[in-house]
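Feature request, filed as a ticket because there's no other form

It would be nice if the structure record came with a short human-readable summary line next to the tokens. Right now we just get the raw output. Example of a typical job, pasted below so the devs can see what we mean:
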Amino acid sequence: MNPQLLRDFPFFEHLDDEYLAEISKLCSERTYIKGESIFFEGEGEEGEEFYLIISGVVQIYQDNHSRDVILSIFREGDFFGEMALLQNERARSASARTIEKSTLCILKKRDFIPLLKSNPEILIGILETALDRLRDANKLITDLTVIDVRTRIARVLLRLTEQHGVSSDDGVLIDLKLTHQHLADMTGTARETVTKSLLGLQDEQLIRIDQRKILVCNTDKLRNILDVI
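Raw output as currently delivered:
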């Protein structure tokens, strides 16, 4: 693996080239096709790997028996599987699957732990992100239990603009190709309900959809939906 690719990850950016070269020797690289599972939650899937996304898009989800619930969507420059580093002999708490063809850098726990011990600032960066993700997960639980579908969708779209948004003169483009089913799985509702809600938001000229990408035309007006709850 090219050591300079590691600089795309904030907790590695401060390291010198020599150390990045040493880390790159610990990495294995694998390309997954669209829709391929990376790991599964539950029994028999003890987490031992930490993943860095070189390219592509990955969803983290839980199987809620009758449907998947998407917890997060990550892309180039993101990482996941950090709980495998922070806990001992625990099964995965969620599953991971690609949304697009993706290339991942994989670090084994047994190789990464010595790195963390010698560079604690890396661990601090990972812990800060893990805590942010825990807060997001708590918000998601609240959304799924007490907030109406329209508000849930508005909140998810705003979160996606923060995580994957590209600003333009027309608004903020969510630079991900998302199906209505993806949004349904992120908001805990039916695909048909998502379709109806998105049509309503388009009629209000709050969003536009082109080739499965959503442009949020006015984030302030979309945020006003949250203010009425």
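Something like this underneath would help us a lot:
The two ends are 48 Å apart (CA to CA).
The mean pLDDT is 86.
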